Amino acid sequence: MAMRVKLETGEVGLRQRYRVTNWSEYDRALVNRGNLTIWFDEASIRGSWTPPRPIGRGKPGWYSETGIQTCLTIKTLFQLPYRATEGLIKSLMRLCHLDLPVPDHTHMSRRAGELSVKIPRRPRQGPTHVVVDSTGLKILGEGEWKVRQHGVGKRRTWRKIHLAVDETTKDIIGIEVTTTAYRERTLWRGQAKAWRLMP
Predict the structure, then answer these.
(1) Residues 150 and 106 in one domain
(2) For residue 46, how many C-alpha atoms fall within 13 Å in the half-sphere facing its CB?
(3) How far, in Å, CA of 147 to CA of 156, rounded?
(4) How many domains does the chain have?
(5) Is the dihedral of CA 137, 142, 148, 152 positive or negative?
(6) What would the pLDDT profile of 14-47 be if each residue is shown by its tens digit?
(7) Same domain for 85 and 66?
(8) Same domain for 77 and 53?
(9) With 80 as the cut, is the pLDDT of residue 133 above it?
(10) Considering only CA atoms, which of 90, 93, 71 is closest in space to residue 82?
(11) For the segment 58-95, what is each residue's pLDDT rounded down to a tens digit?
(12) What is the 3-state secondary structure (H, E, C) of 48-64?
């Protein structure tokens, strides 16, 4: 149990301190934070990595939008520059024993501006069981400085983010950001048709 004393008031506050007892499991958990496993489905990636041949005249492309989107997703996930992304994709192809061409950094940068992102969506069969919940979003910026200097004011505002999650697939099928005046029950009635869950 740790004790903390405020100098200006002299008040003594107790602070609960957690003690680690299972050091072996805690050590393995810290090591596993750096564990990384990436694999490609060879059957699907070979069919979608290169685009189909164009109809009529024209040189066929080397990389489809799926291939470029895969490279840009890994780039964003690991916060890499384009050159490092090119090297990482080449090493992944080599580790997965896939003989597929890898776009260079200039090609990825040029295609990123004109790429139409396609988010895969799994089809649903039968009724969908939806779990709806909400959480608060703290507004950052000038308000943070005011709270540190002068404390929380009466005009401090929050935003609520409402999530609708498929209970079976764990997919997020609906997101809404509102003020604190909205409740899940009120928002759900208006957004059910927009989320295509009700006729």
Answers:
(1) no
(2) 7
(3) 9
(4) 3
(5) negative
(6) 555 667 778 888 888 888 888 878 777 777 777 7
(7) yes
(8) yes
(9) yes
(10) 71
(11) 676 788 888 888 899 899 888 899 999 999 999 988 88
(12) HCCCCCCCCCCCCCCCC
